[in-house]
Amino acid sequence: MFSRSARLYDAIYASVRDYRRDAAELDRLIQERKPGARTLLDVACGTGAHLEHLSGYELEGLDLDPEMLAVARERLPNVPFHEADMADFDLGKHFDADVCMSSGIGYVRTEERLRSTIASMTRHLEPGGVLVVEPWLSPDVWLDRHVGAVFVDEPKLKIARMNIARREGNVSIVEFEYLVGTPDGIERFTERHELGLFTVEQYLEAFRAASLEADHDPEGPMGRGLYIATA
Ligand SMILES: C[S@@+](CC[C@H](N)C(=O)[O-])C[C@H]1O[C@@H](n2cnc3c(N)ncnc32)[C@H](O)[C@@H]1O
Question: Checking DSSP bridges between strand 81-83 and strand 58-63, what pairing results, if any?
């Protein structure tokens, strides 16, 4: 996953996402459905970039990747972070809201693990708690052999990250090639990511299996959609 590039993640995604705007929208969606909500768990939280802008809540984060969590802990030293698999975790507590953003859920790869992830997140909700999930792409909008590229141009950090995404059955394979320049030298490496391509119906069914009825916004913050459910 992102272990090798964790220290580059914020520089790359700051050019792709508006975390402050996402957080304001999450806050609006959560408070609309559970007024006064004050505890929040970010599942697959990565470097904690959403949490940074959700400061009105008592926050916790969870991720599988220790390198991503190391960046999150440096960013938010007072926030508890848990190293765990989102498909099967037990923190022994409940939250007013669980969020899972930036398509992190796609990394579970299989429908069975999609269902156990939604179930695990639901088990951590207070009654009336809100679950917000930003999905990965669905198979019908997948563009095979699509060429992706991101460029970072800071005074002491230059990054070119490219990939040609392909599909094996209902799993998308994204092999990123990085070229990273700093005053210490120029480094080149690759990173392989595998994400499940689930249909809208598979997502909605995973919510239903956890006894949640989800609303589906087909647009969401990045055009990939958004699911919002209340326990
Ligand atoms: C695209 S990043 C999103 C990070 C963050 N939510 C954001 O919006 O920037 C996906 C994250 O999912 C995490 N992840 C992948 N598989 C996971 C799993 N099984 N359990 C928990 N986290 C996982 C990765 O380590 C990575 O931090």
Answer: parallel
